[in-house]
Design goal:
Structural class: alpha+beta
Number of helices: 4
Largest sheet: 5 strands, antiparallel
Radius of gyration: 17 Å
Number of strands: 15
Strand order of the largest sheet: 8-7-9-14-15
CATH superfamily: Creatinase/methionine aminopeptidase superfamily
Bound molecules: 2-amino-4-trifluoromethylsulfanyl-butyric acid, cobalt (II) ion
CATH topology: Creatine Amidinohydrolase
């Protein structure tokens, strides 16, 4: 069941989402060769406290951290560790909080130092596919319009869409209906309505879309070792179009 949010509830979600945007912007400034994802986790968890928020991820199915750090061939749900990042790495950071009863969730992929043209292209295309999807998040469109926007954008540029993980509705829970695959058929699926809040999150691979989970039972990696990128925004559908709640303000 899809839970529509009232204007007042959206005001509350805007606050949670803005905390997420601020912390991710701060993290972006910290990412450089030599820094560890453990240090990024410490920053994210300290900032969460400063904003009187709670981590959306820590404790979720026993996830141990407030930040997901997924470098290079890691797709999502990578665990922070004390290995320094190197120039040439790409790093996906996924972060969420709950504030005043509502969740916000967003992700970015950041180049570390100087990266290859291929890595840079993967990052750009993945981010652009998110905005292509968001532009379809309007009243009267259907969920398949969002999903297919990602798929068309990405596949026509030679990359592949991860099938095994999806975006989601978000509100008083981190994961609400509907599930939002990053592939689909235009005109299919539920009709989009004002007050729907969606976490749209393309996970895009350089080579095959196939993924596997490491023995830590969290880290998702590409099966072929190729690079992967991830961008996510929490978006509300309004009478005047999509509003990106995790846009930095
Ligand atoms: N953005 C991811 C999601 O919506 C983050 C979840 S990480 C977890 O599923 F640790 F909470 F699972
Ligand atoms: Co999410």
């Amino acid at each position: 069941m899809i839970i529509l949010k009232s204007r007042r509830e959206i005001d509350r979600m805007r606050i949670a989402s803005n905390i997420v945007a601020k912390v991710l912007a701060g993290l972006r400034l910290l990412v450089c060769p030599g820094v560890t994802t453990y240090e990024l986790e410490q920053y994210a968890s300290a900032e969460t406290l400063k904003h009187n928020a709670k981590s959306a991820f820590r404790g979720y199915h026993n996830y141990p951290s407030s930040l997901c750090c997924s470098p290079n061939n890691q797709v999502v749900h990578g665990l922070p560790n004390k290995v320094p990042l190197n120039s040439g790495d790409i790093l996906s950071l996924d972060f969420g909080v709950v504030y005043d009863g509502f969740f916000g969730d967003a992700a970015v992929t950041i180049p570390v130092g100087t990266v290859s043209a291929a890595a840079s292209r993967l990052i750009t295309v993945t981010e652009e596919s998110l905005y292509a999807a968001i532009s379809m998040a309007t009243i009267g469109n259907r969920l398949g319009d969002i999903s297919s926007a990602v798929q068309c954008y990405v596949e026509s540029r030679g990359f592949s869409v991860v099938r095994d993980f999806v975006g989601h509705g978000i509100g008083r829970s981190l994961h609400e209906d509907p599930q939002i695959p990053n592939y689909g058929v235009p005109g299919k699926g539920v009709k989009l309505k004002a007050g729907m809040v969606l976490a749209i999150e393309p996970m895009i691979n350089e080579k095959s879309h196939d993924v596997k989970i490491l023995s830590d039972n969290w880290t998702v990696v590409t099966s072929d070792g190729g690079l992967s990128a991830h961008f996510e925004h929490t978006v509300v559908i309004t009478e005047s179009g999509p509003e990106i709640l995790t846009w930095l303000k």
